[in-house]
Automatic annotation (TrEMBL):
The keyword Cytoplasm does not apply. Keywords: Aminopeptidase, Hydrolase, Metal-binding, Metalloprotease, Protease, Zinc. InterPro entries: Aminopeptidase_N-like_N, Aminopeptidase_N-like_N_sf, ARM-type_fold, LTA4H_cat, M1_LTA-4_hydro/amino_C_sf, M1_LTA4H, Peptidase_M1, Peptidase_M1_C. The active site is at E355, Y443. Pfam families: Leuk-A4-hydro_C, Peptidase_M1, Peptidase_M1_N. Its cofactor is Zn(2+). Binds 1 zinc ion per subunit. The lineage of its organism: Eukaryota, Metazoa, Chordata, Craniata, Vertebrata. This is Arginyl aminopeptidase-like 1. It comes from the Eukaryota. GO terms for biological process: proteolysis.
């Protein structure tokens, strides 16, 4: 679709501004259709109107750019079929435009049916300026199944390094990045709710952009929302303009497109520290406040001692309804986290600290391509564990690390040691959604490499000093692995002289490009006081004879254990399932009632043991759990397990009783799991549920991770219970 084009006067009549120093072009990103390497994006302005009844977002986007070469023919942006473009226009940028929000936005009108394009937005005129804007031709072409390319024709003879604006007006409906919730999918059941989730490549359905982590810019936004709805964004400044009925936001530091985030709903704040507050639905706010009051400032202060000043001003947290598709997301200034995690204290602590660590590693210094996601996640995981060691001691950190490395090896068994996604430098093939690269190798193998680097220098504090210098050097930019490794060897010249990057079997290149498990793992002996009892109890339950083992095991009071200890024990039992029926019966007699009173991270693991061992006496607990859960992280793993054995009809029955309380995206995912083996395009019917009809299920077909497409390997969500 193209707009009518008119001839624009070439914007070269005036002298070009002084030429800035040349900038290296962004790294080539096969997940982006954009022409980001031809332009410098200085700032973007968003004007947004939320229309929850229509599940539609109307937007006016102003991109402030300059070309890196003279006379570029077109600007290519990442877009999405869910995004309908109404018009494109060009304007020569007024002086200091990047510092000024747009004066006014004219939003596309809500359209019950076809309608003529609405008028262009109004912008302030600069003294003596040419006419504000002139229309540009544009077209939208297919790119991949997760996006489109938007090509906007530019005026001829555009000078290099001369600022200009491209103004796009659009509406977005059924966008993968924008999650609309009806009131009944919230805790309060009173008001609609909406949030965005941009990682990895979803924000191209939120607004046209250079949807690549290689490109960063500042942004500002004006948001109009229904009365009584609180709007928040990942921004350093926010203001509600009551007389205009709009929220204004500004992000003063450059961020990649995927970190632009919005949430709106029945949210109330509570301060939990001098620079932090939590936002949550009113009924959740007391719990969220009591769990985090004072703690976040403690974690921020520890991180600052290690890696330098916190750069983002405020660190706020918003708790989202269970429909949030992942556990947590490190949006700058405003961490998004699923409210379901509130009942699992230790998981809450680790997840929030991980997002705090992203403030330095991921948000300030970002991986330039999705093929090197470990540069954000591996470093953030290392920093997270340094923060937990400083705050809670080495034993707790080693326990959490052992728990995650256990999950990494479990994933390795599923994928095989030659799986290409087990590389740190993954080759992303054209058309493959980068979200499918989200796995524990990104986090834990990346962590092991960073830990190995820290051991090379012989002193964790010296390595902290290096990371502080690395952040200072590269903050607000995007990097590749070579940047990190070159900086490391420059900071430690004695290690460079020793050629540590070429040590046989531990070469840096091999760390990056070899498949399989980490080349070296950390020494976790400082956690043995917490991990040894877990191993001992597991050995008791797998020993002979059973009656003596059960008697000895029952003398160990796991109610006094940490959550990660109990979860590690249950994971070991899961790995050994199916177990002999008499063992499952004894386990149930010993632990079932106790575990049923614990948090959801514990309960789901016990219930997976019940399902994988077809232990019918405890199926009522599975039903009750699924009736009370609405999140992907606590439903998908159970439905996967139910559908790989003799309990498919039970799964169908429970799903049809609970589906009305699930988000449509989650419903579709579970239907996909249930329909495996029913034939192409088939979905389970109510008759099948009530009649108990079962069918063959491919046990290696996974549920979805972050998007609507199945990933390339069978990975349970409980093994990827980490941030984005």
């Amino acid at each position: 679709m193209a707009a009518q084009c008119c001839c624009c006067k070439a914007p070269g009549a005036e002298a070009a501004p002084a030429r800035p120093p040349p900038e290296p072009p962004p790294a080539l990103d096969v997940a982006s259709a954009s022409s980001a390497q031809l332009f410098r994006l200085r700032h973007l302005q968003l004007g947004l109107e939320l229309r929850p009844e229509a599940r539609e977002l109307a937007g006016c986007l102003v991109l402030e750019l300059c070309a890196l070469r003279p006379a570029p023919r077109a600007l290519v942006l990442d877009a999405h079929p869910a995004l309908r473009l109404h018009s494109a226009a060009f304007r020569r940028a007024p002086a200091a435009a990047a510092a000024e929000p747009p004066c006014a936005f004219a939003f596309p009108a809500a359209e019950p049916g076809p309608a003529p394009p609405p008028p262009l937005p109004a912008f302030p005129e600069a003294p003596g300026a040419e006419p504000a804007c002139c229309p540009l031709a544009f077209r939208v072409d297919p790119f991949t199944d997760y996006g489109s390319s938007l090509t906007v024709t530019l005026p001829p003879e555009l000078q290099a390094h001369q600022p200009f604006q491209v103004i796009l007006r659009y509406t977005s409906t059924d966008a993968p990045a924008i999650w609309w919730l009806d009131p009944e999918l919230t805790y309060g059941n009173a008001k609609p709710f909406v949030f965005t989730q941009g990682h990895s490549v979803c924000n191209r359905s939120f607004f046209p952009c250079f949807d690549t982590p290689a490109v960063k810019c500042t942004y500002s936004a004006v948001v109009k929302a229904p009365s009584g709805v609180q709007v928040l964004m990942s921004a350093t400044q926010s203001t509600y303009v009551e007389e205009e009925g709009v929220y204004r936001f500004h992000m003063e530091h450059p961020v990649p497109a995927y970190l632009v985030a919005l949430v709106a709903g029945d949210l109330q704040p509570a301060d939990i520290g001098p620079r932090s507050r939590v936002w949550a639905e009113p009924c959740l706010l007391p719990t969220a406040t009591s769990k985090l009051s004072g703690a976040v400032e403690q974690w921020l202060s520890a991180a600052e001692r290690l890696y330098g000043p916190y750069m983002w001003g405020r660190y706020d947290i918003v708790f989202l309804p269970p429909s949030f598709p992942i556990v947590a997301m490190e949006n700058p200034c405003l961490t998004f986290i699923i409210s379901s995690i509130l009942e699992s204290d230790e998981f809450l602590v680790i997840d929030v600290i991980h997002e705090v660590a992203h403030s330095w590693f991921g948000n300030a210094v970002t991986n330039a391509t999705w093929e090197e996601m470990w540069l954000s996640e591996g470093l953030a995981t290392y920093a997270q564990r340094r923060i937990t060691t400083e705050t809670y001691g080495a034993a707790f950190t080693c326990l959490e690390t052992a728990f995650r490395l256990d999950a990494l090896h479990r994933q390795m068994k599923l994928l095989g040691e030659d799986s290409p996604v087990s590389k740190l430098q993954v080759k992303l093939e054209p058309g493959v959604n980068p979200s499918h690269l989200m796995n524990l190798f990104t986090y834990e193998k990346g962590y092991c490499f960073v830990y190995y680097l820290s051991q090379l220098c012989g002193d964790p504090q010296r390595f902290d000093d290096f990371l502080r210098a690395y952040v200072e050097k590269y903050k607000f930019t995007s990097v590749v692995a070579q940047d990190l490794l070159d900086s490391f060897l420059s900071f430690f010249p004695e290690l460079k002289e020793q050629s540590v990057d070429c040590r046989a079997g531990l070469e840096f290149e091999r760390w990056l490009n070899a498949t399989g498990p980490p080349l070296a793992e950390p020494d976790l002996s400082q956690g043995s006081s917490l991990t040894r009892p877990v191993e001992a109890l597991f050995q008791l339950w797998t020993a002979e004879p059973l009656d003596q083992a059960a008697a000895s095991a029952s003398a160990i009071d796991i109610s006094k254990w940490r959550t990660f200890q109990t979860a590690l024990f249950l994971d070991r039992l899961l790995d050994g399932s199916p177990l002999p029926q008499e063992v499952v019966m004894s386990l149930s007699k010993c632990y079932s009632s106790l575990l049923d009173s614990m948090n959801a991270e514990i309960r789901i693991r016990w219930l997976q043991i019940v399902v994988r061992n077809d232990y019918y006496p405890d199926l009522h607990r599975v039903r009750r759990f699924l009736e009370s859960q609405m999140s992907r992280m606590y439903t998908i793993p159970l439905y996967e397990d139910l559908c790989t054995g003799a309990l498919k009809s039970f799964a169908l029955e429970v799903f049809y009783q609970t589906q009305g309380r699930l988000h449509p995206n989650l419903r579709r995912t579970i239907q996909q799991i249930l329909s495996q083996g029913l034939g192409p395009g088939a979905e389970p019917s109510m008759e099948q549920a009530s009649a108990g009809v079962d069918s063959e299920v491919d046990a290696d077909t996974p549920a979805l991770l972050l998007g609507d497409e199945p990933p390339s390997s069978a990975i349970s969500l409980r093994d990827v219970n980490v941030s984005a």
